[in-house]
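Appendix B. Chain record.
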Amino acid sequence: MVETPEIAYGKMNKKVVFTVNDHRHAQLIIRLKHDDLRQSQFFRAFMSGYLEQDERILSFIDDLKQQSAKKKKKSKKLRVKGTELLSDAGFSDSQLDDLFDLIAEEHPDL
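Structure tokens predicted for this chain:
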């Protein structure tokens, strides 16, 4: 499971809220109980995976997006190629994070 990193700034008072019908909510509660998860664990883990660009989540998101089949295929191919290139170059996860931080500092408009 994806762990939520500790946050060194900001207040922990933001809520993410949406509505579903009773039946879908009951299905969610039953499924979470079956998997021994709490709602907060589930949603925080999914959100962290999305924000941290977890390949499993991105694959799901690609399926969710309203894209043409050609664009989905190209997006997946580019992501796989980029992952392979970085892996082949021998970068660790922390080195990749540092690299992206440097890029963000040099080009804040990206």
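Further analysis of this model is presented in Appendix C.
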